[in-house]
Amino acid sequence: MELQSYDIALACYNGEKYIEAQLNSIIKSVSFCKIAKLNKIIISDDNSTDNTIELVERLFQNNPCINIYINKGKKGVKNNFQNALSFSSSEYVFLSDQDDLWHENKIERSMAEMLKVKFENKLLNIPILIFSNLNFVDENLNLLSVGLGINSDDPKNPSCTAYRSYGQGCTMLMNRELLNISGPIPEESVMHDWWFLLVASNFGIVSYINVPLMDYRQHNNNVCGGYQNKKLNRFFNIKKQTDYLNDVSKQSLFFTNKYYDMLSVNELRSSLSLHEFFANIDNIGISTRIAYFFKRKIKVRGIKDNIKLILQLLLK
User: Fold this and answer.
1) How many angstroms separate the CA atoms of 205 and 4, rounded?
2) What's the pLDDT score for residue 125?
C-alpha cells in the first residue's frame, strides 16, 4: 500500500542563527518515520535581512525536498505561513518555526495519531487537527519547563477555543480538509494556529498528544509565543487585557460572518451565541457581560484565567 504523503510548511525571518539545527532535526525526524513519506519542505522567507536563505541554499542544496519561496514584501507571521501553505499539495501538512528542535519521533507519532483518528471515526472528509505537547528550552537548549499544562478536553471544546488558544502552531499537523475550510488565514484572526484550532474544534476533530514531541526554543528574537515572557506584567497591564479582548472580538466577528450557516445547526448554536457575544462586546453592558460569565457560557479553567477574563469584561 502506498504511504500517505505530507508537507512541512516552515515560515522564517532572520533565522540564520538556528535554522540549520531546526532543519537537521526535521530531516532526522523524516528519516525516522516509516508510516508516511515526505513530499516537500516548504520554506517561506519574509524578506530576511540576514543570511538565512544563503545559509539554507548552501547547506541543503543537495536536498531536493527543500523548496524556498521569498515573499513579495514583508507579510508578517500569519501571511508568511499562508504563503508557505499556498505551495502545499499533500494531504497532510505540518507547521514549523525556524528555531526549534523536533524530536526524532515527532512526525511518526503525529502521523500515527492522524491515521488513527481517521480509522476510528471512519471519516474521510472532515477537518482534523493533531497537536502535541512540547518542552520549553532556552537558546542553548537548557530545559525551562515541560509541557503546556492544559486540560486535554479543552482544545476540542468550541466554548473554550472561542476565548483562547491551546496549542502552538509548531506542534500542529493538519489534513487537507481543514486547510480547505479554514483558508486563507484571515487578517482578522488573532494568530494562525488559534484560527486552525478554532475551525477544527467547531467543524472537525482535534486530538492532543500529551507528550512533548519538540523543544520550543525561547530567545530574544522570538516573534510570538513564549515561556514566562513577563507574564505577571502582562496580567496587570490594562491595555494588554483590553487589546486581547479586542482581538478576540474581531476574530469572533469574522468567524461568525464566515461560518454563520454552518454554526446555525443545533449542536453548534451555543458556539454561535458565544462568538456573537464576543463580536458585539462593545455594545453589551458590564452587568450583562458579568452575568454571561457567571452563567459559565465562556469556558475557562483556573483562578488566574478566570480573574483575567473578569478584568477584561470589566475594563473593555
Assistant:
1) 19
2) 87
Could you tell me the residue ranges of all domains in the chain?
A: 4-217, 232-315
Task: Report CA torsion sign: 184, 255, 149, 223.
Answer: positive
Tell which phi-psi region holds residue 128, choosing left (phi > 0), alpha (psi between -120 and 50) or beta: beta
Buried/exposed code over 31-68 (b: 16+ C-beta within 10 A; e: otherwise): eebeebebbbbbbbbbebeeebbebbeeebeeeeebbb
Percentage helix, strand, coil, to 5, in the chain? 45, 20, 35
Assigned C-alpha cell, 142: 537548557
Task: Flag whether the pTM goes above 0.85.
Answer: yes
CATH number of 4-217: 3.90.550.10
Cα–Cα distance between 291 and 24 in angstroms, integer? 52
Residue 88 has a pLDDT of: 98
Q: What is the C-alpha to C-alpha distance for residues 257 and 254, in angstroms, rounded to an integer?
A: 5
